[in-house]
Every structure is written in structure tokens, then in C-alpha cells.
UniProtKB/TrEMBL annotation:
Protein name (Swiss-Prot/TrEMBL): TRI47 protein
Keywords: Metal-binding, Zinc, Zinc-finger
GO molecular function, one term: zinc ion binding
Pfam families: SPRY (PF00622), TRIM_CC (PF25600)
Domain of life: Eukaryota
InterPro entries assigned to the protein according to its UniProt record, in alphabetical order: B30.2/SPRY (IPR001870), B30.2/SPRY_sf (IPR043136), Butyrophylin_SPRY (IPR003879), ConA-like_dom_sf (IPR013320), E3_ubiq-ligase_TRIM/RNF (IPR051051), SPRY_dom (IPR003877), TRIM8/14/16/25/29/45/65_CC (IPR058030)
Organism for this UniProt entry: Stercorarius parasiticus
Length: 419
């Protein structure tokens, strides 16, 4: 009886636990259904808006072709009529002259004079066509937009499936087919770098700036043994070395780690959260030797890298062993904007989607009577950095220094566009 009672008690407990877990499972089912319904509605709305954008663009392009055809066709048809009328008039005068009897000298002279006057009439003004059939460029522009849209769909589908994006990705319109605010945040805080570049000059497609996106992960094969990685987005400096496997790209004298993807053209933007400690954020040449000594291997202490350092009291910009102290308050979020076309690297403090420029590294002439050793170093050697393929780089200087990559703040990329 005791065993039976115990068994019944166990069954009762099991039933109660099942009741609780069933209730939780029901909530989860409802939660999933509700989330899926909301997501479906949002997606349908966005697809509808995208269709409206495409329809509007199609209407504008068709109208552009019609306007160009109408303005140029009117001029061309008028020129054609003038030439036809002139030809008919000259032919008639010539015929009249040929029909004059050879004995009628006066009549012959009259017809000859009429033909001469007709020949000396002012010619038709030359066709202007200053726009050189501008509407014929529409095919090129629409084809470029189709390629952009196709690449965006393909790469975003790969992103949804959890696949990495290793090459050219999607483009962004002024408001963004996939603007920073619309990039779905995920548990791993994917880094998004927005690389802006222009269409070839002959296209002049101002309504479709070319923007390529990369998803950047921290490269575990480059992490120093005193850096612990959290997934591919977080890094922390620790006291106990981590037994990473041997790698020719691993830093051995500096507590540094690089991003996986390369940057070699266009404009790039990414953000880093400084969670704790002294952290340096910057870029480094792909061919930099990770076995360099501590003094030469640190970010910004050589001509192959540059960075913004937080040393617990100030921000400091570093390049080629030269430094520039920045008098600004602490920002948890640092935005990095790399412009290959301008050969410039700008660091921003980001807070509440507002951006404060902390330092821009770019060749710049001195004002008369001024001299800055740091800017002088920039002027002489910084541009050569852009001859290299670059990688995002991070240096965790103090024990327990901790950083997290991304996610992007909603409006920062649009703010950069306005600048």
C-alpha cells in the first residue's frame, strides 16, 4: 500500500508538472502564432510599399522617356518638314527654268533669278539636341536597379537562412530598400557595414546610391590567447590563456583580434559597444604581421593601422606611433566611418541616434603658423593605408576589457548621408 501510495503521489506530481508545462507550451504556441501573424502583416505591408515604390519609379521613368521623346521629336519633325519643303521648292524652280523656251530671254532670266533666290534662302537652324537623347540612359538605370534588387533579395534570403555574406551584397535607396532602421536585430548583434559608392559618372543615377553591406564577424584565428570570444560578436580580455589552435594569422604579443571580412573600396560604417575597460577600435592592413613586437604590433603604433583608444580618462587617436588626445565625454557606442574615395577615417560617439564627431583622420593642410605632429604624420603617410585591403581591428588593453560589435543605431547611416 505504501508503494502504491508513493506511486500515485508520483503520478499526481507528474500530472501537475505536465499541467504547468502544457500551459507554458500553449502560451509558447500562442506567442509564436501571434509573432508570426504580426511579422506576416509587417512583411505584407513592406512588400506593398516596395511595390508602390517600384510602380512610382516605373511611372517616372516612362514619363521621362515620353517627355524626352516629345521635346526632341517636335524639333526633329520641324527640321524634316523644312527640308522637304525646301527640296520641293528648289525642284519646282529648276523645273520652271528648264521649261523656259530658249528664245524667251526675259522669262529665262526671271526663272533663273527665282532659283537663285531659293538657293540663297537661310538654311534651317541646326538641331540642338543638347541632352543627346537622355532618355536612352533609362535602360541602363533600370537595369542597374534590377541588379541591385536581385542582389538584395538573394543576400537577405541568405541572411535569413543564417548563411554568411562574403561578397557584394545589396544596395540601399535614399530611404533604403533595407535601411539601418529596418535591419532586423538578432541575438548575436550582427555587425552591418554600410559601404557607399557611386554609380559610374555617366549614369548619374542620383536616386539610387550604391551601398553594399557586409556582415562582419570576429575572426577566432586572429584572436590573441588572452582574448575570449563570445560567439563572433563579443570579445573580452582574460587572465588565463585560452588554448587556441596554431594559426599564422594569430596575434602573439598583443591582445588584439580582427574582423573576418575585407574592406577595399567604397564607404564602410560600423559600431562597437565599449562594455568595460580600455579598448582601441580601428582598422589594420590585411598583410600586417601579427608576430610584431608589442611596441610595434599595437593598433596605431605603426603605419599599417590606426585606431581610437579609450584609456579610462580620454579618447586618443593613434597612427604611426603619433597620438592626438580628444576632449570629449565617454560614449558607450563608437561609430567608425571609413571612406576609401576620400581616404578618410572618422570616429563618432553615438548616443540616442545622435552622432558626435570625435576625430577624423584625413590629409589636411595646416593653417599658416600652425604645426601638429600628429596631423603631419597623417599628411605624409595616412593615404598609403588606403592602398591596402583593410580589416576592422580591436585591441583590448586592460584586463577585463570587454566590447561587443553592433548593432547599428537606427538613424546613424542616414545622418552620415546628410553630412
Amino acid at each position: 500500500q505504501a508503494q502504491q501510495a508513493k506511486f500515485l503521489s508520483d503520478v499526481e506530481n507528474e500530472l501537475e508538472e505536465l499541467a504547468v508545462t502544457i500551459a507554458q507550451a500553449k502560451k509558447m504556441v500562442e506567442l509564436i502564432k501571434g509573432a508570426a501573424t504580426k511579422e506576416r502583416e509587417k512583411v505584407e505591408k513592406l512588400f506593398g510599399e516596395a511595390s508602390e515604390v517600384l510602380a512610382t519609379f516605373q511611372k517616372e521613368v516612362a514619363g521621362f522617356i515620353e517627355d524626352g521623346e516629345r521635346s526632341m521629336l517636335g524639333e526633329a519633325e520641324a527640321d524634316l518638314r523644312w527640308k522637304e519643303e525646301r527640296r520641293a521648292k528648289l525642284a519646282q524652280c529648276k523645273q520652271n527654268l528648264e521649261n523656259v523656251p530658249s528664245t524667251d530671254t526675259i522669262y529665262f532670266l526671271q526663272e533663273f533669278q527665282a532659283l537663285k533666290v531659293a538657293m540663297e534662302e537661310n538654311l534651317s537652324p541646326a538641331l540642338s539636341f543638347q541632352n543627346e537623347l537622355n532618355f536612352t540612359k533609362c535602360t541602363q538605370a533600370v537595369s542597374a536597379m534590377k541588379d541591385v534588387l536581385s542582389a538584395a533579395c538573394k543576400n537577405q534570403w541568405h541572411h535569413l537562412q543564417g548563411k554568411g555574406i562574403d561578397g557584394l551584397s545589396f544596395q540601399e535607396t535614399e530611404e533604403g530598400l533595407c535601411s539601418p532602421g529596418e535591419v532586423p536585430s538578432n541575438p548575436t548583434h550582427s555587425v552591418i557595414l554600410w559601404i557607399s559608392s557611386c554609380f559610374p559618372p555617366h549614369l548619374h543615377v542620383s536616386f539610387l546610391p550604391h551601398t553594399v553591406a557586409f556582415i562582419i564577424d570576429l575572426d577566432s584565428d586572429t584572436a590573441d590567447k588572452f582574448i575570449q570570444l563570445f560567439g563572433t560578436k563579443g570579445a573580452k580580455r582574460v587572465l588565463c590563456p585560452i588554448p587556441y589552435p596554431e594559426s599564422p594569422t594569430r596575434f602573439i604579443n598583443c591582445e588584439q583580434v580582427l574582423g573576418v571580412n575585407l574592406m577595399n573600396r567604397g564607404n564602410y560604417y560600423w559600431e562597437v559597444e565599449i562594455i568595460d575597460g580600455w579598448v582601441s577600435i580601428g582598422v589594420i592592413a590585411e598583410d600586417f604581421d601579427p608576430r610584431e613586437s608589442y611596441n610595434r604590433g599595437r593598433l596605431g603604433r605603426n603605419e599599417k593601422s590606426c585606431c581610437l583608444q579609450w584609456n579610462g580618462q580620454n579618447y586618443v587617436a593613434w597612427f604611426g606611433g603619433f597620438e592626438s588626445v580628444i576632449q570629449q565625454p565617454f560614449f558607450h557606442t563608437i561609430g567608425v566611418f571609413l571612406e576609401y574615395s576620400e581616404k578618410a577615417l572618422t570616429f563618432y560617439g553615438v548616443k540616442d541616434s545622435k552622432m558626435t564627431c570625435l576625430q577624423q583622420l584625413k590629409v589636411s593642410h595646416f593653417a599658416k603658423g600652425q604645426f601638429d605632429p600628429f596631423q603631419n604624420k597623417i599628411n605624409h603617410q595616412f593615404a598609403s593605408l588606403f592602398l591596402c585591403k583593410l580589416k576592422p581591428a580591436f585591441f583590448l588593453e586592460s584586463v577585463d576589457a570587454h566590447l561587443q560589435i553592433g548593432p547599428l543605431k537606427k538613424d546613424c547611416v542616414s545622418v552620415l548621408k546628410r553630412r
